[in-house]
Amino acid sequence: MCGIVGAVRNSEASGFLLEGLRRLEYRGYDSAGVVVINHAGALERTRTIGKVGELEQALQRSPLTGMTGIAHTRWATHGGVTEPNAHPHICNDTLALVCNGIIENHESLREVQRASGLTFTSETDTEVVVHQVYLHLQEGLDLADAVRATMKELQGSFALAVVHAGEPGRLVVGRQGPPLLLGRTDDETFVASDINALLPVTRSYQVLENGDVADLHDTGCLIRNDRGEIVERPLHTSAQSGDAVELGDYRHFMQKEIHEQPRAVADTLEGRLLGDRVLEDSFGAKAKEIFDATRQVQIIACGTSYHAGLVAQHWLEYVGVPCEVEVASEYRYRRHAPREGTLVVTISQSGETADTLAALEEAVRQGAMGTMVICNVPESSLVRESDLAFMTHCGPEVGVASTKTFVSAMTGLLLLALVLSRRHGFDAGFETHVVRQLRTLPGALESALAMEDAIAEMAQAFGDKAHALFLGRGAHFPIAMEGALKLKEISYIHAEAYPAGELKHGPLALVDEKIPVVAVAPNDLLIEKLKSNLEEVRARGGRLYLFADPASGLVESEDVRILHVAPVDSAIAPIIYSVPLQLLSYHVALIKGTDVDKPRNLAKSVTVE
Ligand code: M6R
User: Fold this and answer.
1) 573, 524 Cβ separation under 8 angstroms
2) What is the pLDDT of residues 333-357, one digit of tens each?
3) What are the residues facing 65 on neighbouring strands?
4) Is 2 labeled as catalytic in the residue annotation?
5) Cβ-Cβ contacts under 8 Å for 112 (sequence gap 6 or more)
6) Under 8 Å CB-to-CB from 574, ≥6 apart: which residues?
7) Is the pLDDT of residue 288 over 70?
8) How far is the CA of 235 from the centre of ligand 1 (A)?
9) Active-site choice (2, 91, 375, 394)
10) Does the C-beta of 353 come closer than 6 Å to ligand 1?
11) CA-CA 20 to 30 A from 407: which of 55, 161, 178, 396?
12) What pLDDT digit, counting tens, does each position of 61-93 carry?
């Protein structure tokens, strides 16, 4: 989703700006642009639709020269994917601005601005922001004051960066929602939406708080809060590697990340187990105090992370911990009846998902006893805002489709269930048993990955299909949901997931020989129930594609294709069964020739509502 980079340098800025955009590419975008203040004190702008590579080529043809500049990757919200809609937006040839977020009152502001004689060259909500800053400059305000005055008039959630042609060596940025990080060296200052873009120049960074406006010069920067008071924000040092993530021998990052899962899970478990026990310090310094007070768990997340939460609900309730799971975008706007001792657990790969952040804020406002995040990005907003953090330690995930972070988040959630099981008087032998199973996880994941060739062959049956159904029962229903999400997001095949027992209450009407029905069939307590449901599909001419335990008793036939998953204990089975579904969607996407790592319309990090 939109990314911002900016710099006040003592050498040419465009190289850093372009590299910064490249490092924000993973967030998802559809156009990109850059502005610098040239050596004659004029704005020079280049914008392109498509990849940052297009922008790079345009800059090679006509380089931009200047030491102060801003750049942006745009993920369209208001207005189509066109060059005029790409940022930076310019007002009166003197003021340029980039924005990440949404301005809700853009229509009313536009009317007033039109009445003042300003004209528009784009369909975006952002253009009203640059006009509004311009109007305040016309009133005689200084650039930073004009930005602050504008921010007070905007409704919505946004981060912005502004340069003025008449003030080379100055860059003003403001935050009211999506994160903005400042980086400094001795004689240069930088801004970016996340740390990846800053790493080529510095590891030290400050995070602006909501309402902050920062005035960046080559010698440093002055931050004022929403009341106009000068403030200092803590200086952090990033532990992240500055190296760009390499694809190696893989064709796509998604494929690489699927294959990294045994190592990712081993890293998630590293230092978290001692003998047959889970170390509760893994969740943070205040873990004991918060877990002692936990009476129930409320999980909040979006997309794949939400599916991990649904699996965890089975584990938590199994050990006696009441648990609810909610989609963040719904939770944030709902009134909640307070329940004493609620631990709110958010799950997020990026730690920057706008809805999850807002839901966390709402949960705290409504009196959550404690908060915890399961996250893959240590320097993210959710980690900063939560009492406890369990880091998945998977390393960067580049593919938009979450894979390794899904299995690692589930692993972390299983550890949480074990730690809480002790306080709910659950049989201690269970922890011992599950910890032993957890130690087998990397090996079991390797076995699941060994199914790839057979899955690639199975995928052939899906290339010409428009729809697919995914079935599962119990903790494997969320795994079916995740399988359906993976298939639709990277192959654009419409896919829906159902608890298998629910078929006859409606979806069975869809079943015929044209709709493939995928099911996960571990040999658990529900296997006989599932088998009956699968017979209901067969009886209606449905074609079944099954990932099943060899002991499940399922038999292959003309209309039933079965790939066996090596036997696995039911405590960790959902983690293992997610792998064949990832591989299936990946190979279907290869057949369909889609952009696997950057599927259309999607962003890795969803930083707007
Ligand atoms: O970064 P988060 O885990 O908070 O992201 C939430 C969803 O946008 C994300 O899980 C999304 O559904 C997946 N990338 C889809 O594969």
Assistant:
1) yes
2) 988 887 899 999 999 999 999 999 9
3) none
4) yes
5) none
6) 311, 314, 410, 475, 476, 478, 479
7) yes
8) 29
9) 2
10) yes
11) 178
12) 999 999 999 999 998 888 999 999 999 999 999
Q: Where does the pLDDT of residue 441 fall: very low under 50, low under 70, confident under 90, or very high at 90 and above? A: very high
Atom number in ligand 1 closest to CA 301: 4
CATH code, residues 253-439: 3.40.50.10490
Cβ within 8 Å of residue 335, ≥6 positions away: none
Kindly report the average pLDDT of the chain as a whole number.
94
Q: What's domain 3-237's architecture?
A: 4-Layer Sandwich (3.60)
Strand partners of residue 556: none
**Ligand 1: does its nearest atom lie under 6 Å from the Cβ of 376?**
no
Domains 253-439 and 449-592 share a fold: yes
**What is the distance in A from the centroid of ligand 1 to the CA of 565?**
26
Residue 604 known to be catalytic:
yes
Integer Cα distance of 192 and 593 in angstroms: 33
**Residue 428 confidence (pLDDT):** 84
| C-beta 157 within 6 A of ligand 1 | no
pLDDT given for residue 243 in this prediction? 66
Confidence of residue 393 (pLDDT cuts 50, 70, 90): very high
Q: Does the C-beta of 401 come closer than 6 Å to ligand 1?
A: yes
Span 449-592 CATH architecture: 3-Layer(aba) Sandwich (3.40)
C-alpha distances (whole Å) from 28 to each of 203, 390, 534, 593 are 24, 26, 38, 19
Q: Pick the catalytic residue from 256, 486, 598, 604.
A: 604
- How far apart are the CA of 100 and the centre of ligand 1, in A? 18
Tell me the CA–centroid distance for residue 308 and ligand 1, in Å: 11
By alpha-carbon position, which residue is closest to atom 15 of ligand 1?
A: 401
What SS3 class is residue 212?
coil
Ligand 1 pocket test target in 26, 299, 302, 394 with most atoms within 8 Å of CB? 302
The dihedral built from the CA positions of residue 392, 395, 396 and 400, taken in this order, carries a sign that is negative
Query: Which of these, 62, 80, 69, 79, lies nearest to 34 by C-alpha position?
Result: 69
Q: Where are the domains of the chain?
A: 3-237, 253-439, 449-592
In DSSP terms, 545 is beta-bridged to 518, 561
Contact status, residue 390 vs residue 375, Cβ threshold 8 Å: yes
Q: Is the CB of 403 under 6 A from ligand 1?
A: no
Q: Is 329 in the pocket of ligand 1 (CB under 6 A)?
A: no
**Alpha-carbon torsion, ordered 344, 349, 353, 359, to 10 deg:** -10
Question: Is the beta carbon of 400 within 6 A of some atom in ligand 1?
Answer: yes
